[in-house]
Amino acid sequence: MADLSHHVGAVAAAEAAPRSVEASASSTHKPGAGYTFVPSNLTDGDLATSWQTAKGAHGPHWVRLDFARAITITAVDIANGFQVQDRFGDEFTLNSRIATGRLRFSDGSEQPIAFDSDAEGYTRFPVADVTTNSVTILIDSEHLGTKWHDVAVSEVVVIQPGADE
After folding, report:
1. What is the pLDDT of residues 113-145, one digit of tens each?
2. Is the dihedral of CA 97, 102, 105, 111 positive or negative?
3. Fewer CB in a 10 Å sphere around the end CB: N or C, the chain?
């Protein structure tokens, strides 16, 4: 398993990082099939959990991490899709996932993000040392799932300066 000691909420840092991170979302899918799909799954360090949009919810979709205090970050790692194999099959391909979007910081600045349709695991999006109280992922388009059209994201990891990258 990957060393997540440099992640908050994954957020951690060379200096004392805020251990309090609150995740929120535009909508949340109801629990089902033994899973919950709550926003806090985004920061639990477990790729076998995910946040998912509510069934039938229409965009714009977003998820946000709010930090206890302003932090400086150098990158955001996102594990797109529901990254688990279970009795239904490959949940990554069965569920929709982000195709394009934007990272929005508390100062209003944004950075575009894009994922290949088969981008499992973490994708890193470097940012130019941004000091922020929050990171919002705005979902602009999706790769449609082969069975379900709720958007899934497994993890969001904020990287701070000094992290062993």
Report:
1. 999 999 999 999 999 999 999 999 999 999 999
2. positive
3. N
Calculate the CA 55 to chain-centre distance: 18
Evaluate if pTM is beyond 0.90. no
CA distance 90 to 69: 38
pLDDT digit string, tens, across residues 31-54: 999 999 999 999 999 999 999 999
CB 135 within 8 A of CB 128: no
Residue that is written with structure tokens 């790692």 in the block: 77
Q: Which two tokens stand for residue 101?
A: 């979007």
Nearest Cα to Cα of residue 11 among 51, 62, 71: 71
DSSP 38-99: -GGGGGSS-TT--EEPPTT--S-EEEEEEEEEEEEEEEEEEEEB---EETTEEHHHHSBEEE
